[in-house]
């Protein structure tokens, strides 16, 4: 179950983030029924979390809070359903990063959501090899999903990342 909660005044197409998370979890062979929360917060709330959990000042773009320490499965042996955890995204920080990166704020938030899911599944980017693996997976994310409600049609999620 994917729960998306927008606690900001910024418009977020929640269905896109739910569909992206579902897609990423399937590609990582996590059984349907795994629980994940994606929460969008403003800068003061993100700063508070950043200080409380990372002892770092100022707001950040994304934080992940793993629960059951689920790991990616395989096609033959998917990870059983469980409580994956929470991802917290700050849309205003994402918008600033997107401007620098030359893409939309929505694309940045989709990228950050994928990044957060990978962290919850045990990926990290402290060591160069870890970073290479994690960012390669992250780049495969369908960050250009069409907006369902604005286009009036179904979301066209790619069948695979390859």
UniProtKB/TrEMBL annotation:
Q: EC number(s) on record?
A: 3.1.-.-
* Top class in the EC scheme: hydrolase
Pfam families named among the record's database cross-references = YbeY
Tell me which UniProt keywords the record has, alphabetically. Answer: Cytoplasm, Endonuclease, Hydrolase, Metal-binding, Nuclease, Ribosome biogenesis, rRNA processing, Zinc
Whether Hydrolase counts among this entry's keywords is yes
**Cofactors demanded by this protein:** Zn(2+)
> Membrane among the record's keywords?
no
Domain of life here?
A: Bacteria
Q: What is written in the cofactor note of this entry?
A: Binds 1 zinc ion.
Residues involved in Zn(2+) binding: 115, 119, 125
Localisation: Cytoplasm
Enumerate the InterPro entries for this protein: MetalPrtase_cat_dom_sf_prd, YbeY, YbeY_CS
**Family stated for the protein in its record:** Belongs to the endoribonuclease YbeY family.
Q: Briefly, what is this protein's role?
A: Single strand-specific metallo-endoribonuclease involved in late-stage 70S ribosome quality control and in maturation of the 3' terminus of the 16S rRNA.
Family annotation (HAMAP family)? Endoribonucl_YbeY
**Any idea what this protein is called?**
Endoribonuclease YbeY
The species this protein belongs to is Demequina litorisediminis
- Please name the taxonomic classification of the source: Bacteria, Bacillati, Actinomycetota, Actinomycetes, Micrococcales
């Amino acid at each position: 179950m994917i729960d998306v909660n927008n606690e900001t005044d910024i418009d977020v197409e929640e269905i896109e983030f739910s569909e992206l998370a579902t897609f990423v979890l399937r590609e990582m062979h996590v059984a349907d029924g795994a629980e994940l929360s994606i929460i969008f917060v403003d800068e003061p709330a993100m700063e508070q979390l950043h200080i409380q959990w990372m002892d770092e000042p100022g707001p950040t773009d994304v934080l992940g809070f793993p629960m059951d320490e689920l790991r990616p499965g395989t096609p033959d042996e998917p990870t059983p359903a469980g409580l994956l955890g929470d991802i917290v995204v700050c849309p205003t920080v994402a918008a600033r990063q997107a401007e620098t990166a030359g893409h939309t704020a929505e694309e940045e938030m989709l990228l950050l959501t994928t990044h957060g899911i990978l962290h919850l599944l045990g990926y990290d980017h402290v060591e160069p090899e870890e970073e290479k693996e994690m960012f390669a997976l992250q780049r495969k994310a369908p960050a250009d999903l069409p907006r369902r409600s604005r286009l009036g049609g179904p979301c066209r999620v790619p069948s695979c990342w390859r």
